[in-house]
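Sample pair:
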Amino acid sequence: MKKLLPIAFMAVCLLIGSQTYAQLTPAPSSTQTIIQDFGLGKITLTYSRPNVKGRQIFGYTEPYNTVWRTGANAATIITFTDDVTLEGHKVAAGTYGLFSIPGVDEWTIILNKTAKQWGAYDYKQADDYLRFTIKPTQIKETVETLTLQFTNVFPTSADLNLLWEHTALTIHLTTDIDARVMARIDSAMQTTDKPYYQAIIYYWNNDKDMNKALPWAIALQSAPGFPPYVVKLWLARVELKKGDKAAAIKAAQEGVDAAKAGNSTEYVRLNTEVLTAAGK
């Protein structure tokens, strides 16, 4: 037993030493994790971000027609908590390795079922969940650090952009949530705690039936927790979209007055926007 103690002690020292040295210098390629709300779920993207550092990247440092980890170090990982569609291809909720094959005129984007792997050294095409191609574009400015980002994010659509050196890619994402949201609203309206506010906003933003939303906007005025300038704004917006300008002007003016009394410059502006849109 005594002979084992020095060995165990050395192992602990090595472990502590390795942890210390791991924090001694920054990683040459920093790691970034992005969490993006999308539809009724979230998208989580984790990747390492190499720099150009004066090199020629695509076709040289990262060869054409060769599988790339779409980053540095470990393979890039993307997780969808809900079903989505990428460039017209349906993708089930899950976690995937995001690989790519750069090309001069066309890139292949790959979702691989083996998400956690180092680089693309153990990549197997047999484990691919999805492949599709997109066209790259060339940009004049130099993007020094590999950048993956979500832009043009709406409740049911978004873009995933890749930018590095002089190359840019855009992957279009969509999600079909309308039927589920409408069903949830209908179900929730049968309960005691009716979600008037959320339902009104969804109906208004998605051009749903304002005749159905109007009773909710009226009921919201008696719901606790909402300042009068907020409920008047949504009543005015519903009335205006429904086509009743006179009712919209009346509600919006009451909203302006309430917002001034409540010292809310934001809702003075928002209610005034409805007045202007209604022609007053």
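The radius of gyration is 27 Å.
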